Structures are given as C-alpha cells and as structure tokens.
Amino acid sequence: MYGKKVKLRFLFLVLILVSAILIVFLILQSLKENVVYFQSPSEIKSLVELNKNKIRVGGMVKEQSVSINSNEVNFIITDFKNEINVIYSGAVPNLFAEGKGVVAEGFLKDKNYFLATKILAKHDENYMPPEIKKAIGDK
Amino acid sequence: MLANQIGYYSLILGLLLSVLLCGVSIKDFNRGSKQISQDILSLTFLQLVFVIVGFLSLVLSFIKSDFSNETVFNNSHTTKPLFYKISGTWGNHEGSLLLWLLVLTLFIFLFLIKSKEQPKKYRILTLLFQQIIIIGFFLFVLTTSNPFNYLFPIPSEGLGLNPILQDPALAIHPPILYLGYVGTSIIFSSSLAAVTQSYVSKEWGQHIKKWVLVSWIFLTIGIMLGSIWAYYELGWGGFWFWDPVENVSLMPWLTLTALLHCIIVLEKRAALTSWVVILSITTFTLSMCGTFLVRSGILNSVHTFANDPARGIFILIFLFILIILSLGIFFLFHKENSKKLNNFFWLSRETSILINNWFMMYFLAVVLIGTVYPIFLDVISSEKISVGPPFYQKLIAPFLIPFLLFMSLGPRLKWIKSKIENKRSLIVTFIISVMLTFFIIKNLTTDLLFYTVLISAAFFLFFTTLKELFIKKFNNISQTVAHFGFSLLILSILFNSILSSEIITNIKIGEKYSYSRGEIFFKKIEENKKNNYNSIIAYFEIKDENGKIIELKPEIRIYNQPVIITSEADIKTTLLEDKFLVMNLVKGNEYFNIRYQIKPFMIWIWISVLLLGLGGLISLFKTRYEK
Description:
The complex is a heterodimer of chains A (about 140) and B (about 625).
Chain A: H1 4-34, E1 35-39, H2 41-45, E2 55-61, E3 67-68, E4 73-78, E5 83-88, E6 101-108, E7 113-119, H3 130-136
Parallel strand pairs in A: 1-2, 5-7
Antiparallel strand pairs in A: 2-4, 2-6, 3-4, 4-5, 6-7
Chain B: H1 2-29, H2 38-63, H3 70-75, H4 82-87, H5 93-114, H6 120-144, H7 168-196, H8 202-233, H9 244-269, H10 273-295, H11 309-333, H12 349-381, E1 385-387, H13 389-409, H14 423-441, H15 448-470, H16 477-499, E2 501-507, E3 512-515, E4 518-529, E5 533-543, E6 549-552, E7 555-559, E8 564-568, E9 570-573, E10 577-585, E11 592-600, H17 602-626
Antiparallel strand pairs in B: 2-11, 3-4, 4-5, 5-6, 5-7, 7-8, 9-10, 10-11
Helix pairs in contact in B: 1-2, 1-6, 2-5, 5-6, 5-7, 6-7, 6-11, 7-8, 7-10, 8-9, 8-17, 9-10, 9-12, 10-11, 12-13, 13-15, 14-15, 15-16, 16-17
C-alpha cells in the first residue's frame, strides 16, 4: 500500500512518541516519590494520619528552647499557635538562633516529635523564606 | 553625585541611540550598497561608549562610597575593602542588570566588526533583533531598577554587602557567567536574521560557531566558579546542590552544548537547519527565563536581591514578546532546504550527534520539570514543596551509562555512512574498563552492579579518548580534550560521592573526639579584630588512621555591617583528596558545631571542567586558524 520510506518514517514517529510518553511518565513518577512537602506545626497537629515521607517543618525557634550536647541539638519550632519538638544531630547553620526563623527537613516520629536530618541555612539576617512567612501567617 | 547624573543621562542617551539605530538601519537595509553604512558602526560604537560611561560612573560611585546613590547605599559600606567595593557594583540587582546591558551592547559591536564578509542584510537584521533586546533591557533598567536613584538627605553610612558575597570567586563569577548568558543573545538575534534571509547554511554555521563556542566557554567557567564558591563558602562540603538557581544556569548550558554539537552538522553537511534555529531560540529564552526566575524573587537564594513584583512582570512580558516574535519569524520564514541531499545512514556521525542532542533534551526536561514544578504547584494550589537531589540523581545517573558509551563511539564514526572500525581494540578497552572498575568498586558500595556499570562506561570513555590523544596525533584535538575532560568529570564526581566521609559533632574547647578512623582535637580559639569583621579562629588537630597529624583552622566571622555571621571552612587540598573542616557557632553555648569531611578527588572536578573549557578554546582557535 505505502512505500517503504513512508512506513519507516511512521515507525520512527511511533518510536519517538512512545519513548517521549515513557520519559514523561518516568519523570512524573520519580517526582512523586521525591517531592518534599512543607508543613507548619499547626498543619502537623491537624494531620489525621502520620506521613511516613520526608517533610519540611518551618517556623520560629522558640525562646529558651535550644539545648545542645555532644551528639544532638534539641529545640522547639513554633508558629505561635502550635509547636513541635525537634531532635537533630548534624551541622547547624550560623544563623540558627532562638527567636529566628528556621526550616528543618526530616521525618515525623509522632505529632509532637520531629527527627530532623537537615536544617536549612539562610543567607541573610533580615531575610525570611516565604515558607516561614506562610507558616507564621499574619502574626 | 555628579557621577550619578552622568550615569543616568548616558543611559538615556544610549536608549535614544537604540531607537535611532533602528531607524538608520531600516533605511540602510533598503539602500542598494553592498556594505552597511559606516554610520551604523559609529552609532553602535557610540552606544557602547554610553553604556560603558554609565557602568563606570556606577563603579566610581561605589569606589567613592557615594551614599547619595541608593544602590550604593543599599549595597556598600565605607569599611569594605576596595576590591569588594568594585565587585559590589554587580553584586546587586540594579548593577547586575547594567552589566547585562553592557555585555549586550559590547557583543553586538564585536559582532558587527567581526562579520564583515557576511551578507549585508543579514548583519543589519541581526543588529535590529539585538537592538530590540537592548531596548527592552534599557527600559527595564530605567523604569524598574534604576541604578542611579538619588537619596536625600544623604546617609552617612551604607548598609553593606552581604558578606558571603565578599569573596574573590564570587567577584568574578557574575561577569563571566553573564558573558556566557548574554552571548547567547547574539546567537538568538543572528539565527532569527539568518532565518528571515534564508541564510541558514554551511557558511552561516561556520560563522556562528565561534559565537556559540565563546558563550559556551564562558558559561562553563562561570558555572564552575559559582560551584567552587558554594563548595568552600556555604560550608556544606558539596559542590552542586540541585538548587533552583544552579539549575537555571545549567539549562542554557545543556541546550548550548546540544547546539555546539549540531552546529557541526550544519557546518559540514548543511543538515538539521530547523533544529539549529530552534536550539538557538531555546538557549536564549532559557537564559532570559533564568534571569526572570532569579531576579523576580520567585526562587529564594543569595541571588534574589529584591522582591519587587513590577520587575518580575516586566521581564515576564518582555520574555513573552520575544518568544512570540521568534516563533512567528520561525514559522513564517523558515523553509527546510529540500533540494540538497541530506539523507544519512543510521550508522553515521550525524546520527551520533542527534543521539547526543536527544540525551541533552532529556537532561533538560528533567532539570526543567524539577525546577519549575514546585513554582507551578505553588501558584495553582499554594502548596509549598521542594524537589531534592535524589530526584535528579535517580533520573540522570542511569541515562549517563548509554550517554557515555555513545560518547566513546560516536566521534569515531564518519559522515553520511560509516562502520565501526578497530572493533578488537574497542572490545579490549571495554573489558579493561569493566575489570578495573570491578576491582576498585568491589569492597566499597552496596549498590555494586549499578556503580560498576556506570563507572565502567566512564572509564571506557576515559581510555578511548586518552588513546586518541596519544595515538591519532591532533586529529580532532578539541573534541578529544573536551570529551576526555567530561569522562574525568564523571569519574571524579562518582568516586567523590562514593568515597566521601563525614563527621559531624558538637565539641567544646579542649575536648577530643575519637572515631573509627582517627581523632579530632579542639586545641584553642583565637579572636581577631579586622576592619569590617571580628573573627574567631579555631585550631584543630586531626589525626588520621596512620597517626599523621594535620592542623586545620576554620574561622567564624562576625561582620559588622550588615551583622552577619559566616563560617570560613579550612580546606587542605591535595591531588588525592580534600580535607574540609567547617565550624558553626550555636549562640549562647559553649559547644561548637563542627563538620569534618574527607572528599577524595575534589580538585579533579575543577580540573576536568577546565579541560572542557580548554577543549572549547582549542576549537575556537582552530576555526580562526583555518580561516
């Protein structure tokens, strides 16, 4: 019916289309697995079931809440409505301090304890990440 | 004060010249003569001079700490060292846009004097398209981000430059990166001009290749400088974090690399014309998108200088106009050159370059989606998410395996139709690579199979290019050097990530921390007062497995204006590994938080990127020599 060349072209097009669809599917799939959601302490309190995935928690470091020993840094993140205890062993950024904004990444142990694997650094004293602004709301 | 006025008015004059240039060049376009009129050249030169004057007057205001200038007030301070006063000129939003403008005008001027043997109409059209971009940026600078805003009453002291930007690598990072970014504007303008003139041909390919190479080299080195800075200044010990701001510079690099390869097909075989044009347009669009994303405050990072929505909207509208304009021109004027025979056999150099391009597009898709998806989700559902490094690693690393294999075989193929020669030596090389990898990796990692395959592929490329370098003397040395650099890059990154080790602990002065492979002893601290900061220098003695002791002195700096605490890592670099120690202060506590890392082959990552750039440089000089 059709010439050999047309058939070949058609095959080529189908091949490209199929691989394109596969690649998009692959990308979206691993996106789903690797996305880290951001939550405020209040959002965590209102969770119905505990999320097993990695999340980020943001808010202010509560005054007088930081305690440190040779392996761990413990502190409380608050959004002035609710708060959550954070247990962390790892490097602390310089601008981490009581009464300042913070974003911690890690896993929820339960609704009151958060095991952090990373604390994100800020670059500027006056700068506040949009996430924290959102978490604290209109204070 | 005077400098302020001069700078502002010279920018306005520059804008007026742009408009004048458009008029003059349209008139000249329809004139019969063969060469473009001398007026156009002089006017372009004059425009460049005005922009230089504008830029220099801003530099002068920074040097003199003239705080009647708002930009200087916001970003400088009298106690800052002179070098950082100057680099502060482009360490902020307004100044960096002025730098964009400077490079835009510089490049169009260079283009005009370097393209004398090209067709007149093509040159004029390139100038016109470039002037459209230049006018857009002039308007942007003058209306939304004027670097010469006047402050009254004059403050006696400035707010200072963010200390983490006060660094030699970061002082030259923006200009170099911008030369790469903005260099793509010439490729964009000239490809549009070539399309309208149906001039997308071998000759055009030859001529534009130089510009592609120049942008590519600067972009490569610019990205590397930023990466080096992140490595020692941010104190994470990594060199690439898949941060959106880094991704934004990587995306034009990927398309530019693809363009670099397929421009060779155009140059040698007059094929793939549409693809070359599409890549040219995409590359510049991605550079502009990068500027938009970074400058508009959508991405948070050190690069986000200000959160002014008007700026974001301006760039966004401008970007849309450019995209619509370029796509319109492409579809209206572009005709595929059907007369010439550009068929090629499946096993040929052309195919191998196409495969390279497909891989580049795939990598681009991954980076693009990972970067844009969080922004997209935030806009439609106001949910805040982030996409972490595992996403990129998982999607990119497996595809590197076939990519590296094709990269080793592709350059050996001939144009049009080819077969693989020297099969035996290739197989031998391959077996050596696999065996070598297996013995190195055997005891190291849990993910044995995957790493063996990946590293074998990298070694395969390493050995084939190495052999090429020694045996086939200077056959295609630029390509071989660049590919060799790439294999070295992949190898060093892989071994670096597999073999790195890290100790994080909190420690008091005088304490010892022992771990399986050695001991860290915190000897003492020393306080120093400098002009614009106070520093705490800590002395650490680190004993390794063999009992050898090295001393590392990380530093904490407390800058006075603005008040910011930074950590300066101390790094001992050797050819085999970097020893990296960084210390952080936890306020009101006797404990210091330290992070000690052993990073093997760190220096080879930078060396291999330099080799990539060197490959580009050789190619640039070769094309000049051949002419």
